[in-house]
Amino acid sequence: QKEVEQNSGPLSVPEGAIASLNCTYSDRGSQSFFWYRQYSGKSPELIMSIYSNGDKEDGRFTAQLNKASQYVSLLIRDSQPSDSATYLCAVWDSGTYKYIFGTGTRLKVLA
Amino acid sequence: EADIYQTPRYLVIGTGKKITLECSQTMGHDKMYWYQQDPGMELHLIHYSYGVNSTEKGDLSSESTVSRIRTEHFPLTLESARPSHTSQYLCASSEVSEGYTFGSGTRLTVV
Description:
The complex is a heterodimer. Chain A is mostly beta strands. Chain A is about 0% helix and about 55% strand. In chain A, the strands form two sheets. In chain A, strands 2, 4, 5, 9, 10 and 11 form a six-stranded mixed beta sheet that branches. Chain B is about 0% helix and about 45% strand.
């Protein structure tokens, strides 16, 4: 059973700080990784994708991938109260054409 | 502008009624998915489709059924709704390993 693990949180950070969200996955052959943001009562929204080892930056968001250690992380710089949401890590399973989701980490940014 | 549409947005219905939740996408994606999610809980895959006339059951057993007669349309049907079916139902589509686009969801309440 392929798995994606996340700490459920809540992770509380003060406004302006860096929020660090982590995710580990079990399938060493995984190639495609995604971060989704889900506000309460809303559907998930894709915010970052990463396919190669290293960092990928998009505005205040940085995704980091380390395939050797089988983890992917999301850094949010200058965190804002509007970033308060649940962040879902997902891994593409090329064998079944499905995404495997973690349970999500709830982030709270304190004003 | 949403490229994947779900209707209705909210539905309250009596026990024993037949319901169909609609999902349509304009992106030409072959792969479409239905997820069930209770408030504050993780996503559960209940059905997916690789293309026209292809449907598969997901990881969570569901009494619902789906059909895929046209690429853009992936409706979900409950023949006899029960209070245990009360949940949020999310439809998604994707190109291979490029991340999901989710619809806005249907919040179903069975009374």
